[in-house]
Design goal:
Layout (H helix, E strand, L loop, with lengths): L2 H27 L1 H8 L3 H4 L1 H24 L1 H21 L3 H29 L3
Helix pairs in contact: 1-6, 4-5, 4-6, 5-6
């Protein structure tokens, strides 16, 4: 693998990691606005953050193993597509159940990325 391809992979992984951090930060800061928009209590809206983190943690090992079995690039591509679509659905929905389901899917695919992006970095940039 050439140096340009290795750095392209690193930049792509870094860009996605940045996108996920921004997504999580936006949701955490916007909890009061989300609660007002979907007509639920603020305490219920905080479940969005908790659900997201629990799903990431629960599926981390599963998606790491799946990435080894079917290939990291294929899962990275489809995971990115599902993450972006589910984040978009969560952002435009005004029904709390749909927002929760969308955050579940974005969290599940975030678990995939979290498990596989460090493997890709370790493989391409090992010391």
């Amino acid at each position: 693998m050439g140096a340009i391809q290795r750095w392209t992979i690193l930049m792509t992984l870094g860009l996605f990691f940045f996108m996920v951090i921004v997504d999580g930060t936006i949701v955490s800061i916007a909890i009061p606005t989300i609660a007002q928009t979907v007509h639920v209590a603020t305490a219920q809206a905080t479940l969005l953050v908790s659900l997201y983190l629990v799903v990431i943690s629960a599926l981390l090992l599963f998606f790491g193993q799946l990435g080894d079995a079917v290939g990291r690039f294929r899962l990275f591509f489809w995971g990115t597509v599902v993450f972006v679509i589910s984040s978009l659905i969560a952002g435009i929905s005004s029904d709390f159940t749909i927002v929760m389901a969308a955050r579940f899917f974005s969290g599940s695919w975030r678990g995939h990325h979290h498990g596989n992006e460090f493997c890709a970095c370790n493989r391409d940039f090992s010391l």
